[in-house]
Design brief:
Length: about 100
C-alpha cells in the first residue's frame, strides 16, 4: 500500500459486478474514499462475494494501512495438505479477517 494511484476504483467495481447489484450498493460506495474503494475492489478481485466485500472492506483497508503491507498479502489464504491416517486440509485464513 506504499504507492498512490489514480485508478478509478468505482468504475473498476462497476465493471466486475452485475449492474443491478452495483446500483444497490452505489450509495455506500460513493461515500467511501478512493483508498477504501481499492480495498473493496481487491476483495472482489480475490474472489470473495459482494456482500463479504461490503461488510469488510473498511476492516481490510485499516489493517493494510496499519501493517503497511500489500492487499495481495493480506488476502492470501494458505492451504496445507497433510497425508496419513489423519489426512486433511489445514486452512489458514487472512489475519485481517480474523480481527473482525
Amino acid at each position: 500500500m506504499g504507492h498512490k494511484t489514480t485508478l478509478n476504483y468505482l468504475q473498476k467495481i462497476r465493471d466486475v459486478i452485475p449492474s443491478q447489484r452495483f446500483q444497490d450498493i452505489a450509495e455506500e460506495l460513493f461515500s467511501a474514499s478512493s483508498d477504501e474503494l481499492e480495498a473493496f475492489w481487491n476483495i472482489i478481485y480475490a474472489g470473495y462475494s459482494v456482500e463479504f466485500a461490503l461488510s469488510n472492506y473498511t476492516h481490510l483497508y485499516d489493517y493494510v494501512k496499519t501493517k503497511n503491507i500489500e492487499y495481495a498479502d493480506a488476502l492470501k489464504i494458505v492451504y496445507t495438505f497433510y497425508p496419513g491416517l489423519d489426512a486433511g486440509i489445514f486452512i489458514k485464513h487472512p489475519e485481517w479477517f480474523e480481527l473482525n
